[in-house]
Design brief:
The structure holds two protein chains of two kinds.
Chain A: E1 2-6, H1 24-48, H2 56-61, H3 65-80, H4 99-125, H5 127-135, H6 139-148, H7 150-173, H8 186-205, H9 209-238, H10 242-249, H11 257-280, H12 284-311, E2 318-319, H13 323-330
Parallel strand pairs in A: 1-2
Chain B: E1 4-9, H1 18-27, E2 37-45, E3 48-56, H2 65-69, E4 75-77, E5 84-86, H3 96-100, E6 108-109, E7 115-116, H4 122-126, H5 132-136, E8 142-146, H6 153-160, E9 163-165, E10 176-179
Parallel strand pairs in B: 1-10
Antiparallel strand pairs in B: 1-8, 2-3, 4-5, 6-7, 9-10
Classes of the chains: A mainly alpha, B alpha+beta.
Chain lengths: ~325, ~180
């Protein structure tokens, strides 16, 4: 038996009784960052394979969704910062050992390519919007330039999108102090999950039956791959050191078991995989429901990963101090 | 790199908490926040129990994962030593360093929004003084000095006494030692 008790008052906010530094803002950012990566990948792929007829939405209209999703994500990321006025400090140095620094600089590369990717399709996809842009002095020139270089831009978008998607997972897995995150599977898992959440957008909004069918088929494959990666993630913890086994216990009988299995794996992965499969057989409403559940599952994956990872720790103090006692003294 | 270490005798520590009070006073730590704390660790099976008191804080690791995780360089080593500080004017409050610390010792989010932590009282060290917690310990169970100097009190104690550091398996190379 070993029992470790804090005997002096320690109840530092966001640390005690367990880590709670990152909340919904980070989960939303990781979700939208992954989705952005998926959007860029599918839009670039449709462009490079010249599928403007078969995959009209992905070819001409999908790219615009990427800057919208990423900008929303960046907003929640900004909301998470405690020292907001110093956000520019991310760009006064590059710290090669910090995944967060890599992420900040990847975004600097992603943004212009993502904007150019959007501009290269704007005239075909959103003619009204393109019309407004024509009125700005350099608007037409930039769109001409983007259209002339659209295949090069699409080719550039692919590695950047892969980097963005993987980075959202590596951001967590690089923090070895949190045993639940210590798995190399997190990067690929977040990338595949991001692609899956992006793939359901055309399923929901494309007017072409063939395009919807293509993305439904793709999504069934991606969800299956996600199930495999979640399994690899759990196995990598199960074959780890004592701290990893303790972290695994959080979802295998511990306090997060119900949330992980009943609120993520079943409704966010297994049910949508079956429904999407039925959608492929012609039941459109099943396909739509599967899409909504995929979005839900994508968010729950990030939300639970962020929550559970913070609870997993190398230290194991019982905190005896009750901050309410201090409040009573000061009243 | 000059390595400073703190050596704490768990036999003579009585868990009075004076080190905690001294730190709060010396560093004007805001109300409700703490840079150091005391742990009472009991091990064994009744009736063969063993209790030790440990005054804990940032371990000022030689391989500090918090420094490596910081995206802006705000977390840094002070003057080519192992003393880990945070430059408030570079800190964005992203909290990556808190998540990166296996000891959960980067504990303080100041009301102003930047990370604060134990500094080994580097302002006192600069003047040749011990950190406030060490200087105020009523049982003299806490010691501070340079590990590189074989004649320093910390080097001598670590040579002569059985000791441990916390969670050496993290690979962080902590520099707070506990005499057993």
């Amino acid at each position: 038996m070993i029992e470790e008790v804090l005997v002096t008052a320690r109840h530092n906010p966001k640390i005690d009784p367990s880590l709670g530094i990152w909340t919904w803002e980070i989960s939303v950012y990781l979700f939208l960052g992954g989705m952005t990566a998926g959007i860029m990948l599918f839009a670039a792929w449709a462009m490079l394979t010249r599928k403007q007829e078969v995959l009209a939405f992905a070819h001409d209209r999908f790219a615009l969704w990427a800057p919208i999703a990423l900008s929303l994500g960046m907003t929640t990321l900004f909301l998470d910062l405690e020292h907001k006025l110093y956000v520019w400090r991310f760009y006064t140095s590059f710290e090669p050992t910090s995944p967060m620094s890599w992420g900040a600089w990847i975004l600097v590369l992603v943004y212009p390519v993502m904007i150019l990717q959007t501009l290269s399709t704007l005239r075909r996809g959103y003619p009204t919007l393109a019309g407004w842009l024509e009125r700005i002095p350099v608007g037409g020139w930039v769109m001409d330039l983007s259209e002339n270089w659209r295949r090069t831009i699409a080719a550039l978008a692919i590695p950047l999108a892969v980097g963005l998607g993987i980075y959202t997972g590596v951001l967590l897995s690089a923090l070895s102090a949190r045993p639940f995150w210590s798995s190399g599977a997190l990067g690929p898992l977040f990338l595949v999950s991001g692609m899956s959440t992006a793939a359901v957008i055309p399923v929901m909004v494309s007017r072409l039956k063939g395009e919807r069918h293509f993305f439904e088929t793709t999504d069934v494959g991606l969800i299956f791959l996600e199930v495999v990666l979640v399994s690899i993630f759990l196995i990598s913890l199960a074959t780890g050191a004592a701290y990893h086994l303790e972290a695994l216990d959080l979802v295998m009988g511990g306090p997060f078991t119900e949330a992980f299995w009943l609120w993520f794996v079943v409704p966010g992965l297994l049910v949508p995989m079956v429904l999407a499969f039925l959608g492929l057989r012609g039941y459109r409403s099943f396909g739509l429901l599967a899409s909504v559940l995929v979005l839900y599952g994508g968010f729950m994956l990030r939300y639970l990963m962020v929550e559970i990872g913070q609870v997993s720790t190398w230290t194991d103090y019982a905190v005896q101090f009750d901050p309410q006692l201090l409040e009573r003294l000061t009243q | 790199m000059t390595t400073y270490a703190m050596v704490i005798d768990t036999i003579t520590c009585i868990g009075c908490g004076d080190c905690v009070v001294a730190c709060k006073t010396e560093n004007k730590v805001p109300e409700g926040l703490n840079r150091d704390w005391v742990v009472e660790a009991t091990s064994g099976e009744y009736p063969n129990l063993h209790t030790e008191f440990r005054s804990e804080r940032c371990n000022h690791c030689s391989h500090a994962t918090c420094v490596y995780a910081c995206p802006t360089g705000a977390s840094h080593y002070w003057k080519d030593t192992n003393i880990v500080l945070v430059a408030a004017e570079k800190c964005t409050g992203c909290k990556a360093c808190i998540a990166a610390c296996p000891y959960d010792a980067r504990l303080i989010m100041r009301p102003e929004g930047y990370i604060d932590k134990c500094t080994f009282c580097h302002h006192r060290v600069d003047d040749g003084l011990d950190p406030a917690c060490v200087a105020s310990c009523p049982t003299h169970c806490m010691h501070f000095g340079m590990l590189d100097n074989p004649d320093s009190i910390v080097s001598r104690l670590l040579r002569e006494r059985r000791h441990k550091a916390l969670l050496p398996e993290t690979g962080n190379e902590p520099n707070v030692y506990y005499l057993l």
